[in-house]
Amino acid sequence: MTAPTRAKLADGRDLLFFALPGHRPAPVEDRRPLPARDPDQARLRFDRATGQWVIIAALRQDRTYKPPAEQCPLCPGPTGLTSEVPAPDYDVVVFENRFPSLSGVGAPAPAPADAGFVSAPARGRCEVICFSADHTGSFAELDPGHARLVVDAWRHRTADLMSTPGIEQVFCFENRGEEIGVTLTHPHGQIYGYPYLTPRTAAMLGQAREHRMRHGGNLFADLLAHEVADGGRIVARTEAFTAFVPFAARWPVEVHIYPNRFVHNLIELAEDELDGLARIYLDVLGRFDRMYPAAVGPLPYISALHQFADTEAQADGYFHIELMSIRRSATKLKYLAASESAMDAFISDVTPEDVARRLRDLGL
């Protein structure tokens, strides 16, 4: 992959352009009068009741909220006065978030050693990735070459952030749809570099470690093998990847995409596998968009790339993507009410097998 073209925004944040073959990025000077950044604007606080870190990032209250299309900060800004992307055009671009939950380089979050209130700087990195300059487009509408460029950008940022001191986990994700809480409709995602292992990742690694101790194999590889053998929840399968609705799906629509061989993260995928990932990802998103009539609108979803470092502590982690939607019918949404929000006990209104059957039928 060709190295990205690098630039700086007016307040010193990094800006990286990833270009399709034959395209040459042409950034202009960012001339906006942006305030100086405060690297200590967010803090970590440790919750003794759960043993989990909470990020306190009050500055995010000031982030851009549902601007009109002509004021979108993710559209190209050729004058250098209007946009987070000062350029006449772009293919894929990544920049540091102006309103980050995590910022600054430093040591990982400390292990609390006493019963008092523990706080620490929210070190880490928050980036925005714009999938296209087209304000009205979506990831599902990208052509395969452009989707592969997004995968390459994810991979580049994963490698860079995983090698950054103090970052313990790299998380690429997308929130699509106002129902999910999206405040900018331009097609984009985010990339977080956490200074600690997130609770879900720690829980999965704990389960995988226990599975290996009991059975000698990798938990995720065994789950994939069981899903393939059962077949009833498979949505799509290629030589390199398998997409399926998990046996214990939490969400009304939930699809996991696994590589057919064990890797920890995007960095470890071969070139043909990266091509295959772009294709099956587009396939699944296309099925999502065909689930409901145009009058209902596109399916809102969250896409989460679960990646793991090649270290002893994360050795059992198996790279995969989890896609989930809160839409449970054409007219109803799944809200995380008391059981889910207070007890973390999910109740599903649909059967995974029915969802998988419907998604299979939506294939082209």
Strand content: 15-25%
Question: In which order are the strands of the major sheet placed?
Answer: 1-2-5-7-9-8-13-14-12-11-10
Q: List low-pLDDT spans.
A: none
Percent range of helical residues: 10-25%
Overall structural class, as computed from helix and strand content, comes to alpha+beta
Overall mean confidence score, pLDDT: 95
- Cα(first) to Cα(last) distance is 30 Å
How large is the count of helical segments?
A: 6
Radius of gyration: 21 Å
Q: What is the succession of H and E elements?
A: EEEEEEEHEEHHEEEHEEHH
Overall number of strands: 14
Largest sheet: 11 strands, antiparallel
Oligomer: single chain
Tell me the overall shape. globular
GO molecular function, one term: zinc ion binding
Pfam families: GalP_UDP_tr_C (PF02744), GalP_UDP_transf (PF01087)
Cofactor: Zn(2+)
Pathway: Carbohydrate metabolism; galactose metabolism
Give a structural overview.
This is Galactose-1-phosphate uridylyltransferase. The chain is of the alpha+beta class. The chain contains 6 helices and 14 strands. The chain has an 11-stranded antiparallel β-sheet, sandwiched between helices. Strands 4-3-6 form a 3-stranded antiparallel β-sheet, with no helix packed on it. The protein is globular. The model has no long low-confidence stretch (mean pLDDT 95).
Layout of SSEs?
Blueprint lengths: L4 E4 L5 E5 L24 E5 L4 E5 L35 E5 L22 E3 L3 E6 L13 H19 L6 E8 L11 E7 L4 H17 L3 H12 L3 E4 L3 E4 L8 E7 L11 H19 L11 E6 L13 E6 L12 H6 L8 H10 L3
Antiparallel strand pairs: 1-2, 2-5, 3-4, 3-6, 5-7, 7-9, 8-9, 8-13, 10-11, 11-12, 12-14, 13-14
Helix pairs in contact: 1-4
